[in-house]
Amino acid sequence: MRQRLIDRLKARNPRLNRAHNPVSRWTVTHLIRLVNAEYVCFSVLALYVIGGSDWLVDVLFVIGMLLLLTWQPGEVPAATESQRSMR
Q1: Angle at CA 69, nearest 5°, toward 63 and 73?
Q2: At 21, phi and psi to the nearest 5?
């Protein structure tokens, strides 16, 4: 799914081919994962405020917290020679 989105963006904007490197891809991927984990927690908060069932709120809250606690950014990919010369 992510690759299809990237291919569509590249087709619309050819300048993205030059700016698309492993470090930026790593950054965007992990930011999206972190935002999704936070979204689960905020959705649970909204569900609690509007009066959702207690068991559902509890289960989704535990899932959201587990996502946040287990999320790790991982190792940053090494830059290639061509990327180092651009800096």
Answers
A1: 120
A2: -125, 170
Q: What is the spatial distance between Cα 40 and Cα 21, in angstroms, rounded to a whole number? A: 29
Would you tell me how many other CB atoms lie within 10 Å of the CB of residue 74? 10
pTM over cut 0.85: no
Six-digit token string for 19: 């700016």
Q: Record the tokens describing residue 71, joined without a space.
A: 């999320």
> pLDDT of 14-71, one tens digit each?
665 555 677 777 788 888 888 888 888 888 989 999 998 999 999 988 988 888 888 7
Q: In sequence order, what are the residues at sequence separation of 6 or more whose Cβ sits closer than 8 angstroms to the Cβ of residue 65?
A: 41
CA gap 5, 67 in Å, rounded: 24
Q: How far apart are CA 83 and CA 79, in angstroms?
A: 6
Which sequence spans correspond to the domains of the chain?
Answer: 2-86
